[in-house]
Design goal:
CATH architecture: Alpha-Beta Complex
Helix content: 10-25%
Shape: globular
Radius of gyration: 15 Å
CATH topology: tt1808, chain A
Oligomer: single chain
Number of helices: 3
Number of domains: 1
Order of helices and strands: HEEEEEEHEEEEEH
CATH superfamily: tt1808, chain A
Structural class: alpha+beta
Strand order of the largest sheet: 1-4-6-7-8-9
Distance between the termini: 24 Å
Number of strands: 11
Largest sheet: 6 strands, mixed
Length: about 160
């Protein structure tokens, strides 16, 4: 469970959208094994003192950031390269902005905010550099993972 959200914040739509994103990322990574994809509920320890843990809905981490001993059993220490936040009806703008800030402060390269109700994705390259794409467009992750292209219709189907 994502400790940043209440249990009732998760609905069927949220689950389907998260599953679709993981599926599309995995299809890409099966052909281009540059990274690992983490599903909802994976904790990332962004900072140790004071401790700050975040659980994006989907995360992608380059292989070279995976510890030599393999994927940890507990929280992943460090920031994902890409953090995905799927907006639920109970999410508040300030809370989402805080999560985006925390990820960038820890070293995340991109944050994708997925908005199922309006079928749009906001791509954050930084807290100030933002691009909005709509359902008929393609999410281009090539600036972090060359070749990663996800048609939004595949996320929102």
């Amino acid at each position: 469970m994502n400790p940043e959200r209440t249990r009732e914040a998760y609905g069927a739509e949220h689950g389907v959208v998260c599953a679709n994103i993981v599926h599309q990322v995995k299809l890409f990574l099966d052909q281009t094994p540059l990274a690992r994809c983490f599903a909802p509920g994976t904790a990332f320890l962004l900072r140790e003192e004071p401790a700050l843990t975040r659980t994006p809905d989907v995360a992608i981490v380059r292989n070279e950031l995976i510890p030599a001993e393999g994927v940890p059993i507990g929280p992943f220490k460090g920031a994902p390269d890409v953090a995905v936040i799927v907006v639920s009806p109970t999410d508040k703008f300030d809370e989402i902005s805080g999560r985006v800030h925390d990820f960038f402060e820890a070293g995340t390269k991109r944050v994708w905010i997925v908005r199922p109700r309006v079928k749009m994705v906001t791509i954050h390259r930084s807290e100030q550099d933002v691009q909005i794409i709509a359902q008929t467009q393609t999410l281009n992750g090539s600036d972090v993972f060359p070749g990663l292209m996800i048609p939004l219709e595949k996320i929102f189907e």
